[in-house]
Amino acid sequence: MSSYNLKVEDYTKQNFSKILKKIIFYTVAILVIFLSVYFIIILDTDWHRIGSGEGILKQLSYFVGLDFKIMPYLIKPAFETFLMACLGTMLGLIMSLPVAWLGAKNVTPLGMASFSFARMLMTISRSVHEIIWALIFVGAVGLGALPGILALAFRSVGFISKIISESIEGADKKPIEAIRAAGGSGFDVMYYGIIPQILPTVIGTIIFEWDINIRRSAVMGLVGAGGLGLAFFRQMHMSNYPGVTTVIMFIVGLILIGEVLSHYLRKRII
Question: Could you tell me if 225 and 148 are in contact, meaning their C-beta atoms sit under 8 angstroms apart?
Answer without folding.
Answer: yes
